[in-house]
Design goal:
By secondary structure, this protein is an alpha/beta fold. 54% of the residues lie in helices and 11% in strands. It has 12 helices and 9 strands. It has helices at 2-9, 11-24, 64-79, 109-127, 144-151, 176-183, 188-197, 203-209, 219-231, 238-257, 260-272, 274-307, and strands spanning 39-43, 49-54, 84-89, 133-137, 141-142, 154-157, 162-164, 201-202, 214-215. A 6-stranded mixed β-sheet has the order 1-2-3-4-6-9, sandwiched between helices. Helix 3 (64-79) packs parallel to helix 4 (109-127), helix 4 (109-127) packs across helix 11 and helix 6 (176-183) runs antiparallel to helix 10. The longest helix has 34 residues, at 274-307. The termini are far apart.
Length: 317
């Protein structure tokens, strides 16, 4: 009875509990078995812009299948000579939840090597693309989600979501090319602090430090703002723009290209580590625990709304 009273009387506590659980509750054990339909491409005939949508419910966990499909989508956008690309998500609350933990926890190591190599492919193609890119971030975007957003040249995000490279909170070290993407996006000092603390920024905080460029009220407006950005290049010769971008980013790209094999083996060595496996196991168990609590969280939220006092109408004279 006392617990129920606490739930009823502490609306802020219940709201915090609900918000904390909403994002991660569906992440555990999401494995796709086929790539068809995991990434949708819609090219606007009028503008020439390709809308690329990550479409792997519930939270676009970046597993081998989704990464392979995304890599193929990037090839298609390049080969069909699209004038620009907008990356977004079919989920209403998650851009992408980042790397699928199940690819790293007690993995099949041959598959794990293909998984990491596919992630490298996606980064190299997106970060070094010849076509301009923008991200309409319509949900939470931690870790790998933040990475893909930062690879794009412009980012528009919806309110009330979070974004950042939070690997250290899981006991994992973000690779150098993850770090390079962040250093290319926000000031170096802020990048160092964000990386070491594993900070997840709110939309407003991300705007303030330059992690995103604009805030939009909804997905449609975010896409429209991305289109406005891409239209800035209409009068810029495409080759000059593409070469300038690639020259600017070439050092980061070259460092990964020169060490791809070693980077894969470093990943394998990392996930073989007993402490890393223990940390990942605990995190998966934590997410499962929150999933079991989801009905209770929803009930607390419902009761909180019921007992929330109505605002008194102000009297007019």
């Amino acid at each position: 009875m006392s617990a129920l009273k606490l739930a009823l009387n502490s609306r802020q506590v219940s709201r915090n509990l609900l918000n904390y659980a909403k994002y991660n509750v569906n992440i555990v054990k999401h494995q796709s078995t086929k790539s068809e339909g995991l990434v949708l491409i819609d090219v606007n005939d009028k503008t020439g812009f390709a809308l690329v949508t990550l479409n792997s419910p519930p939270v676009n966990s970046l597993n081998l299948e989704l990464l392979s499909a995304f890599s193929n989508a990037l090839d298609e956008v390049k080969n069909n000579n699209s004038r620009g690309m907008i990356l977004t998500s079919s989920s209403p609350t998650v851009f992408t939840a980042g790397l699928d933990i199940n690819e790293m926890y007690k993995p099949d190591y041959d598959r794990a090597r293909k998984f990491w190599s596919s992630l490298q492919d996606c980064w190299l193609k997106l970060y070094g693309s010849s076509f301009p890119t923008a991200a309409a971030i319509n949900g939470h975007s931690p870790a790998g989600g933040c990475l893909f957003a930062m690879c794009c040249e412009y980012r528009v995000m919806l309110p009330k979501f979070t974004i950042g490279l939070n690997e250290t909170k899981l006991g994992i070290v973000a690779p150098a090319w993850f770090m390079a993407s962040m250093k290319n996006t926000i000031p170096i000092r802020k990048a160092e602090m964000a990386l070491t603390l594993g900070t997840l920024f709110s939309t407003e905080e991300a705007l303030k430090i330059g992690l995103v460029d604009e805030i939009a009220k909804d997905k449609a407006e975010a896409i429209a703002k991305c289109e406005e950005f891409l239209k800035r290049y209409e009068k810029i010769p495409q080759m000059a723009r593409a070469v300038t971008k690639q020259l600017y980013r070439q050092q980061d790209i070259k460092e990964l290209e020169d060490s791809r094999g070693a980077d894969v083996e470093l990943f394998i060595t990392t996930i073989r580590n007993d402490k890393i496996q223990t940390s990942l196991g605990r995190y998966i168990a934590f997410l499962k625990w929150k999933k079991r609590l989801k009905p209770l969280i929803q009930f607390v939220s419902y009761v909180t709304r019921l007992v929330k006092p109505k605002k008194k109408k102000s009297k007019t004279t």
